[in-house]
Amino acid sequence: MKVEKTGKLTGFAFIQFIYQLNLKRFVLFLAIMFVVIQSVLSLVIPLITMNFIDTFHIDNLDVASLVLLISIFLAQFIMSAISIYTMTYIGENAVLSLRRLLWDKIIFLPVSFFDKRNSGEVMSRMTNDTLIIKGFITGQLIPFISGIISIVGSVILLMYIDWAITVVMLIVVPVVFLIIMPLGKSMYRVSKSLQDETASFQGDMGRVLQDIRLVKSSTAEREEQATGQQRMEKLFGFGIKEGMINAVIQPITMSLLLLMLILIFGYGSLRVATGTLTAGALVAIVFYLFQISTPFSQLAGFFAQYQKAIGALERILQILQTNVEEHDKKESYLVSNQEGHNISFENVSFSYNEESPILTNLTFKAKIGQSTAIIGPSGAGKTTVFSLIERFYTPTAGSITYRGIDVETLPLMEWRKKIAYVFQETPVMSGTILSNLVYGLEDYDLREVDKAISNANLKEFIDALPNGIDTEVGERGVKLSGGQRQRLAIARALIRDPEILLLDEATAHLDSASEKLVQDALEKLMINRTTLIIAHRLSTVKNADQLIILEKGFITGSGSHAELLASNELYKEFVEQQKTQFLVS
Length: 585
Hints:
With 585 residues, this protein is of the alpha/beta class.
């Protein structure tokens, strides 16, 4: 389904978008057909009632009209039940289609999209906003369609019965509309703010609950409690504003309609008394007035929910209109026997905005089968280098080549399959050890998994578990220690058998015993691969084939450990700091 970029949604654009979803068109047709039949039947009832009253005589009861009336009531009940069920089905089908569209889009959005947004807000689009749209389809569309038919049909039949009373009624109707429409616009603004604030609140709640250990260890419960209470008060305020608008809309609408009924009933009674209108006609007119007034009283709720649904769809479209990463749209130019430097940075620059460059004119080469360590203070741009290699972001200038080919010309999936990224803080998904080891692989060999487990020094730990490799690791891997998580990440990388290895100092926060196990596993992993390391420890740096010093986005030095020790002041400071820390420990 193609999603066009648009500004504020119009009613037509909203209906058009919903119609384009993968709905069951036949079921939709049935739902509308049953609504129409039910509405038409409701229009027939007052006419039959009028005829029954005007011809009623105790000695000559019109049994046929009475049976017909009861039959129409039953038929109307059945049609109503079927139409409600079918529209509920359509609503659920629309939500399913919307959530599929959103999930298919979200999962392929670039990392930059998530860096700028709270994950809870994105989740709110998938849950809250889609439910608002479903509620509108299932709870508002049927009464609206039925109401339009009832209003139009009732006005026509009222003109047929008595045009003078119809004119009196038509004077009141525009007044109701003039009052409802401005309030509907106010409802749109308030409901949109309410939904935005709800999404933001949900995101903050998710953040706090995910990092509950940090909250507890920092004794920040009171602070988070106060922040949460403030957000709840803000939500409460928006809800009160929404309630105030409803409190104005509903009484005004009902009062005007009640006034219309009193005026018309009084005028009609006078006409009956003078003999210019039959009693049956007056009863029919009152029936039709109710068939007009009931939909009108529901119009306020309809427009309020409609504005909510418009706001929800606008927020959903913000995601659907975002460009995804390009996957497998390019031909592969790589062949296995190409030689040369594996990865080459040529005058690469990167910035999130022009005023704040992150990297400036980086030029270096990482050779096949060798390790390159990147050293620099916090904020120097080390992690950004890895993000550019992974193509989470695109350089603003220069190029990154792999075996002489610009990586931007390669199919994204194929490129990322050549890379294994071992993070400093290893991400672990909920599930078993096995599901984490083979995460992202379409197929795998259990023998290769066992081999990777052994090489990553995980075998002894896994064998000691009651469920072995099928042991659940808990949410975000809470049942694993830091060293176990890192070795799991290394085993995962070994199973992928990558050509390029990105290591964000995997031993930075481990104890000595865990560090040795992880370091041994890393040495096995680095054999015959191009390895780039973000380095924080002297032990990692000294073993690297090439060192690169990064300061404020610039390369200020490169070479071996001995070369930089003799020529680079920052590297000398780094070595001295490491030696001091070692002596202190």
